[in-house]
Amino acid sequence: MQTESSCKFICNSHLIFIFAVHIDTLKRTVNMKNFTCVQDIGNLKSALDEAFEIKKDRFKYVELGRNKTLMMIFFNSSLRTRLSTQKAALNLGMNVIVLDINQGAWKLETERGVIMDGDKPEHLLEAIPVMGCYCDVIGVRSFARFENKEYDYNEVILNQFIQYSGRPVFSMEAATRHPLQSFADLITIEEYKKTARPKVVMTWAPHPRPLPQAVPNSFAEWMNATDYDFVITHPEGYELDPKFVGNARVEYDQMKALEGADFVYAKSWAAYTGDNYGQVLSKDRAWTVDKQQMAVTNNAYFMHCLPVRRNMIVSDDVIESPQSIVIPEAANREISATVVLKRLIEGL
Ligand code: AN0
Ligand code: CP
After folding, report:
1. 155-192 confidence digits (pLDDT tens)
2. Candidate of 178, 209, 215 to mutate for ligand 1, largest count of ligand atoms within 8 Å of Cβ
3. Which of 2, 113, 306, 325 could form a cystine bridge with 7, CB 3.0-4.6 A?
4. If you write DSSP's letter for every residue of 191-232 in order, what string do you get?
């Protein structure tokens, strides 16, 4: 039997390969199994086209999710992800169940082989397939714990959901990536850019507590998938995993990096490298994005995923300036989530 993707004939002793057009391209739908990284979204141009189509008419696919249930599982706090993903599900006519693991659920053991005589009455390996019984799609928020780099970077929790829930799973910020955020960031840059190939600078900024690398890793991964001029700047010691840095330019001098920038994307993250994994190495407020930093840019737009600590990461003046697009950026979370949920439902 011919496969859907290709078939071959033997003709005059030449092999002629005829590649059948995959049925998906005809329907212009992309069936996603899971959504955890930029590769899962496939072609960025068609993902953006779909985002703008949905932004024009966000209830266009309201019939698609009828009698389908989204379950959102939060191991960590959230404002935007919770609200925007729920709104996205409502746009698609879905039902929504939300569970905060730390508020009302049994405390979950996550390690195999543990003698469960402590304070955790339930194991994740039972909890996950049970959750899968009550829904069609599962979103998971599970931050890096900073106890063990390998554990975090292997995405143990997220992968257990993929393996044991029996449902499509999407990341609502996992240990190493925050793809719904990065997709919303990309949509926002596309809306505001004035040149085909804008200069986008991601700058580290100080914060009192160690924050995950998920947002900067993910932003870098998505920016590297575009043809933008992408620069990363941070103090020495804050190098990110080279897998995410890719071909981005890394510049240790923040002011030099910011020269001529069209977009400034601020984010704090804890150290990644060596024994410093998960540590705060600097709280140097010289790195806070202030008027002085913005002055060397090309009248750049200021972006941040939020929540943001004012006068640590960004000054009041900059975040309140007309160049600050943090609110439209957050608004686009509804759009990125609608595209992702639509595609996951189409894959059911
Ligand atoms: C989280 C982080 O930096 O990953 C969530 C950002 C969307 N931020 C905090 O924990 C403050
Ligand atoms: N940007 C973002 O993911 O925000 P929340 O942590 O509030 O969901």
Report:
1. 999 999 999 999 999 999 999 999 999 999 999 999 99
2. 215
3. 2
4. HH-SSSS-EEEEEE---SS---SHHHHHHHHHHHTS-SEEEE
